[in-house]
Amino acid sequence: MNKVLMSGNNIIGEAAIRAGCRFYAGYPITPQNELTEYMAEHMRKAEGGVFIQSESEVAAINMIAGASATGARVMTSSSSPGISLKQEGISSMAACELPGVIVNIMRGGPGLGNIRPSQGDYFQATRGGGHGDYRTMVFAPATCQELADLTMDAFDAADKYRTPVMILADGMMGQMMEPIIFKSPAPRVYPEKFMLRGAGSGKSKFIRGLLLDPIDAEEHNWKLARKYEVITEHETLCEEHNLEEADMVIVAYGTAARIAKGAIKRLRDHGMKIGLFRPITLWPFPELKLRALSAKVKNFLVFEMSTGQMLEDVRLALQGYAHIDFHGRPGGAVPTPAEFANVVARLYNKRD
Amino acid sequence: MAKIIFQKPKSLKEKIFHYCPGCGHSIVHRLMAEVIDEMGIQGITIGVPPAGCAVLAYNYFDVDMIESPHGRAPAMASGIKRMLPDRMVFCYQGDGDLAAIGLAESFHAANRGENITVIFINNAVYGMTGGQMAPTTLLNQKTTTSLAGRQTLLDGYPVKVSELFSQLEGSAYIERCMVNSPAFVNKTKKAIRKAFECQKAELGFSMVEILSACPTNWKMNTIDSCQWMDDVMSKVFPPGVFKDVTKATKKAAEVPS
Ligand SMILES: Cc1ncc(C[n+]2csc(CCOP(=O)(O)OP(=O)(O)O)c2C)c(N)n1
Ligand code: SF4
Hints:
The complex is a heterodimer of chains A (352) and B (257).
Chain A: E1 4-7, H1 8-18, E2 21-26, H2 33-42, E3 50-53, H3 57-69, E4 73-78, H4 80-96, E5 100-106, H5 122-126, E6 137-139, H6 144-161, E7 164-170, H7 171-175, E8 177-180, E9 206-207, H8 214-234, E10 238-241, E11 248-251, H9 254-269, E12 274-279, E13 281-283, H10 287-293, E14 299-304, H11 310-318, E15 323-328, H12 337-350
Parallel strand pairs in A: 2-3, 2-4, 4-5, 5-7, 6-7, 11-12, 11-14, 14-15
Antiparallel strand pairs in A: 1-8, 6-13, 10-12
Helix pairs in contact in A: 1-2, 1-6, 3-4, 9-12, 10-11
Chain B: H1 24-39, E1 45-48, E2 64-66, H2 73-83, E3 88-94, H3 95-101, H4 103-111, E4 117-122, E5 125-126, E6 132-133, H5 152-155, H6 161-166, E7 171-178, H7 182-200, E8 205-211, H8 215-218, H9 222-236, E9 240-244, H10 245-254
Parallel strand pairs in B: 1-2, 1-3, 3-4, 4-8, 7-8
Antiparallel strand pairs in B: 5-6, 7-9
The structure holds thiamine diphosphate (TPP) and iron/sulfur cluster (SF4).
């Protein structure tokens, strides 16, 4: 298969269409506009494809919920402030068990923040984000190839578990260009019984999340919780890089992990044994894999482009079995690998 | 053989409405079900009830339905209709839902000319949450959040949705009706039919605004509620057809080429 050179935002769009996504709604926001524009151009060319530029992110998420209910593969994308607006809809999709893919190309926050790459939406993405007891699966690609692969996988996961799935990347990933190969997507598996397409001559169906009887609602919540348990058990993904004989492990995802790899390369050249643990699914977090690592390694450094959000999951995973340092650059600041290497070297030399 | 002249519409389930006595929702549900039956579209109809007293409408309508978050039904319905253009898709919205929290979604669905039908229940209050002021609450009307009556300086003015939406080029059919007398009920049914026919003919956005009693939150009995709609409510929200492109379309079609 041929390699193609595309930018991150366009890759997500192309991968989605190739994966059979046939409905996209979105509202412009930097740094993800190229994705909306890509969908405007290419979704309408795909057979049966629908693109709507919605009046808001609130409308976009509800449009994809409606289209998802009909049985279509659906996607919306936005950046941080817009993702905040989608949260009621994401909660509703989780409650109604509607599959769909939501792309967050994160920017600096809080508030309007800025349009620089950031990782400040980790909590929002991994803790459900909206109201109620639910989770969304979160994929955190770190290369353009992963943007393509994980976008396709996100559609499969959304169908398999009938749940909204998030792709969490940042402005850097959205703008970056790398050569990639689009894999051929697996044929879709999604039973018709979940689709709302008019009852025909059969029995009418309804899809709802409102359960006024607390016992019914509790049962529904436990049903969702059991689904999340299965996801936690089967769907964690991570990359382990240079872990052999490491005496210090950096934990980072997405763009931060790329920077960390650059730093590690420099430091290894100076004989420092540093590895990288990169969660690829942020929820479910690869907790057990990370904990197992603490049997060998006693020094961890969490690096995020935030004030420390994934840090909490690392603490929960390591349960005090190892020492954890943190380095963060919030608000859209992105360190170079050289800058970060200095930070790591200082901590490496101070380790027990 | 006995001739059946009146029976429960097929498109209504065997369920007892949970609506209060005298509530307009029950009447409108029945009218819609009759229209759906008469048009033979039960199997191809998909309804979207958002939060509001009628959010449980799927318990009554025997058609495919999906609940929507408060105000968002027209966005959801847009998604459904775009994927299934040959199905009949309706939203069933209250006035808080359509004219306050969901104004953007409704306005833009109308403006895009989404080929859907909105049944808009204007009862001048928030029914489900216990009778707070709605965007359609009349001046001086008392609600639990406008205790001294709605004041223009504090609360602004009743929103006239039919007038507004009829200005949008995407809207095809907009009528305001009432369900406080048998004659008006019949008229409302005709309007609902017309709106659905409009969708069937793919003419664009259709909406029927229905002035509807909420005796519980108006703190009136049913008879007084019907009277109040005649004397007060319909003066602010005059019934009538505000937009009808079906005529224009017909005429254009009749013009010999
Ligand atoms: C985001 C959100 N805000 C508020 C509510 C609470 N709520 C439910 S229905 C409703 C208003 C109902 O009034 P209306 O739309 O006029 O319909 P009615 O009940 O009168 O038929 C409100 C405020 C909600 N469900 N969701
Ligand atoms: S509260 Fe009002 S709108 Fe709601 S069911 Fe009762 S009468 Fe109808």
